[in-house]
Amino acid sequence: MATLQAIKYSRGKLLVLDQLRLPHEHHYDEVSTAEDAFDCIRSMRVRGAPAIAIVAALAHAVELYNGDCKATTPEETIAYIESRLEFLKESRPTAVDLSNAISLLTLAARASKREGLAHPAAKDAILNSYIEAAETILAKDLENNTLIGSFGAAWLQQQYGATPSRQLSVLTHCNTGSLATSGHGTALGIIRTLHAQSLLRHAYCTETRPYNQGSRLTSFELVFENIPATLIADSMAGALFAQHRARMNIGAVVVGADRVVRNGDTANKIGTYALAVLARHHGIKFVVAAPTTSIDLDTETGAGIRIEERRAEELTQISGAVVAADGTVDTTRTAKVAIADQRIAVWNPAFDVTPYDLIDAIVTERGAVVKGPDGKFDFSLVLPERW
Ligand code: MRU
């Protein structure tokens, strides 16, 4: 049965959809420990900045709920939680959502330490507080995405005066949908909302090499939702804009983010920067959709972002379901195929940084942030307490 739910959680149990098997197979892994979560995130069975943070937070909640913490004092309990979260933080370095979630969870655990409360009640209070905070992250993410969808659709509608009789087409990159989040999605959430409001003419999604999140996941979500959509290879975006922009009223490139830093520079899936340059050349708006949990005010510019580099095999090999001679897809048989000389040297950065000056709007759950008269982004409107 096809599903768009990447994360299924009930207290004490976490199931995560294996995205490496999509779209051919729908298999959930049980993720019960921090080690399970680390492996699931590192191997990209779950991916997407918000989903990574949620799975890490909830996996630790599950192990705490199941009695994994043997600490006998409040101090030991907090130290244990912090050490497990530090371990999880290293699973993937570029997305900031996980670090932001860890700060929040650590604060929640520390805040519940009550002077004068004896063991085991003191320990239970800390564990409960952690578990509740992790569950809130899950619930909040869905709420945030719905708001991002509305704010993003409203901003685009305003820019172009889009109406059901003058609809807008949009291109997106990578996967930012239900599979990358707790549901609805960020950039893909804007596309969903535009579609629901009859303002979307057509969605274009890129293949997103080398990991093919666009062809494997986004096209799956678009087909699932019956949204009119076309898949292109990453290298076709320029030709698409040059040839079809006017006819299809292509108004925006809408992408997600793994980390938006203080000046607005944005790390996102490799290929995003090239799309921003193309969008600027063609007079197409470039919009980043990101919850405030993807904003990192401690890093001044994109130069400070650590970019994950991944294995050579992601470029030199590809895997998928076997296609029979008559064109039918045998979803029960998958194969890995070599598509390059296996000895070639490979550079495989998973993300790139789009400079803020190429970005027209950063849409958060608290509204769209645009540049002021000084040409700079000011996040104080959406992050007053952290500014
Ligand atoms: O390597 P991935 O698949 O985790 O990369 C995902 C992206 O770059 C997304 O655009 C980003 O995480 C935002 S997901 C809402």
TrEMBL record:
Pathway: Amino-acid biosynthesis; L-methionine biosynthesis via salvage pathway; L-methionine from S-methyl-5-thio-alpha-D-ribose 1-phosphate: step 1/6. Its EC number is 5.3.1.23. SUPFAM superfamilies: NagB/RpiA/CoA transferase-like (SSF100950). Keywords: Amino-acid biosynthesis, Cytoplasm, Initiation factor, Isomerase, Methionine biosynthesis, Nucleus, Protein biosynthesis. This is Methylthioribose-1-phosphate isomerase. The keyword Glycosyltransferase does not apply. It is found in: Cytoplasm; Nucleus. InterPro entries: IF-2B-related, IF-M1Pi, IF_2B-like_C, Initiation_fac_2B_a/b/d, M1Pi_N, NagB/RpiA_transferase-like. GO terms for cellular component: cytoplasm; nucleus. Catalyzes the interconversion of methylthioribose-1-phosphate (MTR-1-P) into methylthioribulose-1-phosphate (MTRu-1-P). One of its GO terms (molecular function) is translation initiation factor activity. The gene is MRI1. Pfam families: IF-2B. It catalyses: 5-(methylsulfanyl)-alpha-D-ribose 1-phosphate = 5-(methylsulfanyl)-D-ribulose 1-phosphate. The lineage of its organism: Eukaryota, Fungi, Dikarya, Ascomycota, Pezizomycotina. It comes from the Eukaryota. The record marks C174 as: Transition state stabilizer. One of its GO terms (biological process) is L-methionine salvage from methylthioadenosine. The active site is at D258. Belongs to the eIF-2B alpha/beta/delta subunits family. MtnA subfamily. Its main location: cytoplasm.
